[in-house]
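User: Hey, quick favor. My workstation is busy. Could you predict this chain's structure for me?
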Amino acid sequence: MFSIRNHIWEKIQNRKNFILSMIESFPCMKSAYENEVLADIEQIARKIAEGDKDIEDSIRSQYQNSFYDCQDYENIFLQAMLIMVYSYYENCANLIKNEFCSNNTKKEGCDVVSHICNVKNINLPCGIKEDKSFLYTQVRELRNFLVHNNSTTPKDQKQRDAIDLMTRTYREIKYEDSEIIITDKRCIIDILEKEYRVLIHICQAIGICNK
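Assistant: No problem, here it is.
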């Protein structure tokens, strides 16, 4: 198989690295936001207290307690990252499809990666095939739930099964009180790596390289 230089590989790599940098930057983002809010609380407490130290301390304590009680930033951030990560996968797959399979109509119900494989006669190795299936049948359903249904019950058995499998696959993903809770970045990074492996394998099979 000959190799040709193509911008798609670079987009796959650069977008992945950008998402990883966002995930890794969360602690700094969270710290900066907390410092800003706490500084605002100090100003509010001083303004309302008008020099009374006891009142200032009481107001500061009430505001800070309320602020810390409502903290679920990491869960919100990681949910957003999961949605972004799957969109990255879909968008990159569509880049490949539009450039190399534009003359072939995708069958209804067929995912984009399977369509590319069918058109280009790509036989995926077992591990890549498992990753592709996991991404489409499990991660995609969880993404859809987060976008459309979070804080409600899953829309059908397929979505319930997907959520159940995701919580068993990743201990960082929990389903509690009809809501998805993500407690650590590791599951998001693992999903991103699976997507990257599938995309790069497709690129190599087609002849896209990064030389």
